Amino acid sequence: MTGRKGLGKKARAVQAVRKIVKLFSGRDPWWRREGLSPFWVAVTIAVSPRTTAKLEREAVKRLMERFPGGAKEIAEAPLEDLEDAIRVSGMYRSKARAVKALAEWELEGPGVASLADADLEEARETLKSLPGIGDKVADVILMALGHSILPVDVHVGRVAKRLGLVPENAGYAEIKGALEDIFQPEERMAAHFALIDFGRRVCRARPLCDRCPVAESCPSRRSDVQSR
Ligand code: SF4
User: Is 209 in the same domain as 136?
Assistant: First the structure.
């Protein structure tokens, strides 16, 4: 039998990432719990980069209050009004452009919901052709619509690198590929959310290594960082 010490670096990283996902699973984001429509899910994800879940929700709720007519009202609204509604989430100028583009695209048809049944690569390219939508936002929208992918956000990427799953200079596609090799299609959405939760609560930019359940396996463990 092979003990933990006998495992190679990569195998230890795989074991650690699996353990993290097991321990941190079960906290769906608010937009899944509240059952938003595909269009509003896409808007939420476009607003999500580099903000907290709380501020993301606040920004989307403000949009919903100011534009209860959804895509039509958003498409017709001045950009400044959209920026004002989502200002709280940060990076509001580029996010407002993405939200407006999504609304215009939704109106042109066939709309966000149709991407659930579309070819994955075509759907990704369609979304990425809209202003303000890159790999990560496109992939999270497609994952939310049921495609079996594991998008990489800033937290997911940081955890994968620190555990030694991928090299420090790995790009989006390499990290995503490494994680998708580990998790079965039906596990990927839960793994995405669990790794984000772990990255926000434990393996932060300034990591809380002394509270980390996989510290013994982590090549990036820091002994100089004290929990607050
Ligand atoms: S030991 Fe520290 S750096 Fe490694 S995964 Fe845990 S929190 Fe992150």
Answer: no
List, for residues 13-33, the tens digit of each pLDDT value.
999 999 999 999 988 899 999
> pTM, whole model, 2 decimals?
0.90
Q: Is there an atom of ligand 1 within 6 Å of 220 CB? A: yes
Task: Give the range of the structural domain holding residue 56, as residue numbers without chain letter.
Answer: 30-144
Q: How far is the CA of 127 from the centre of ligand 1 (A)?
A: 34
Please name the amino acid found at residue 151: P
- Same domain? 133 vs 172: no
Write a three-state SS string for 83-147: HHHHHHHCCHHHHHHHHHHHHHHHHHCCCHHHHHHCCHHHHHHHHHCCCCCCHHHHHHHHHHCCC
* Best probe residue, ligand 1, of 200, 220, 222 (max atoms within 8 Å of C-beta): 220
